[in-house]
Amino acid sequence: MEWKAAVLTVSDRSARGERPDEGGPLVRALLEQAGYSVVKTAVVPDEQDEIADVLRRWADEGSVQLLLTTGGTGFSPRDVTPEATLSVCTRLTPGIPEAMRAASMAVTNRAMLSRAAAGIRGRTLIVNLPGSPKAAQENLEAVLPALSHGLEMLCGGPADCAALRN
Length: 166
Hints:
By secondary structure, the chain is α/β, with parallel strands linked by helices. Helix content is 45%, strand content 19%. The chain has 7 helices and 6 strands; from the N terminus they run βααβαβαβαββαα. It has a 6-stranded mixed sheet with strand order 2-1-3-6-5-4, with helices on both faces. It is globular.
């Protein structure tokens, strides 16, 4: 099945046009290489209500099964992407950010500072990636192999994990 995805970049500077968005296009390219169809992209500032509004709207439209954010997951007071994500999700998926942090810890001990979150709204999986293109790629590559199985379960496909395990 071809999954439809969306990529939301969260960055004050990119939203103001002061810095090019490098993370969003990289995440899009990685998804497309993995066979996903990226049907929505946008850049928003680090404003919790604005982030939550886009996440809610995109998930509720039902046109995407996977919604990835990049940016706003650190310790800065303006890093509010996890809070926005948690405010719109009805179920959490803590294993995804745990796996991303574990994979990143093999590269840098700073990975433990990530506050990335992941959860489900309706039939959409929302996952926060770091804003750094390098870290976003490392994190996405750590979880991408398992996401299609999760999306299949979320969208009503076979849920027998043992039968689908590689």
